Amino acid sequence: MKKVDKDKKKKEVKKNEKDIIFIILVVILVIMSLTIIMIRLINGKSLNIEKKEIKELHNYFNTDDLTNCSGLFNYDEKKLTYNDTNAENKLCLAYYKTDLSGVEKVEYDLDKKTKTCNVDDMIFKNDEDSKKCVVSKIEKDVLAKTYKKLFGKDIEENASFRVSEDTICYLKDGYYYCGISDSYLYTIGNEAKVYRSIDRAYEKGSRIVIYDYFLKVAGDSCYATYTSSVEDAKCTKNYTKNKKVDIDFLLKNGTKYKHIYEKAKDGTYYWVSSEPVK
User: What does pTM read for this prediction?
Assistant: First the structure.
C-alpha cells in the first residue's frame, strides 16, 4: 500500500509541475502579447515603406521641377504646418497634383499695342508661334478637390497664383484661367539636386507618420534643409572627396525629418506638418 501511495504522490507532483509550467508559459505569452500591444499603442503599427500609399504621401510636395511652387519647401529649418505655408505655394501644388489632361482651352486675341491679351484683370502673353493667347480654363471645384485631399482644408481664394516661372493662373467666376504670364520670374544660382530616402513609416490612431532623410546639394556645397542658404561645412567636406551621394552618405550627412498626415473622413490622408528631428 505504501508503494502505491508513493507512486501516486509522484504522479501528482509531476502533474502539478506540468500545470505550473503550463501556467507560466501562458503568463509569459500574455505578457508578451500585452507588451506588443503597448508598443503598438505607443509607437504605432509599422507600415511597409514600399507601399503605394506611403510613396504618394511622401511625394505630396514633389512637382518634379524644383523651380515650381518654391520646391520642397516643407524641408525647412523649423516645424512647418498649414498656417506657416505660403498660400500661392499650396494652390500651386494643388494645380500640379490635379489631372488636367482633359481641361478646356480658350483663346484670346492679342492686343496689337500692348502685345498681350487683356481680359478684365487678367493679362496673358501669347506663344511665339501664335497670334492668340491659349489659356487653360479649370473649374475651381476641380482644383478645390485636390487641395482638400492635400491639406484637409477648403481652398483659399487667391485672385492669382503662379505655377511656374512663366505661367500664371487667375480666378474669375468660378474658374481658374491659366496661361503664359506677361512677366517672368527667374531663378538665379546653381541648379540644386535633392536626395531623399524614407527611413520608416507607421500608423498611429488616425495618423500616418513618415520619417525620412534629406539632403540638398548645390554646386559643390551641401545644405541640411531645402530652404537654408547656410552651407553644411561638415557635409560639404565629405561630399568633395568623391562627389557621390549614396544611401550611406545620405544617412550619415542628411537631415532626418518627421512628416505627419491625418486621416480624412473619406479615408484619404492630408498633410499636417513636417519638421527636422534633432
Answer: 0.81
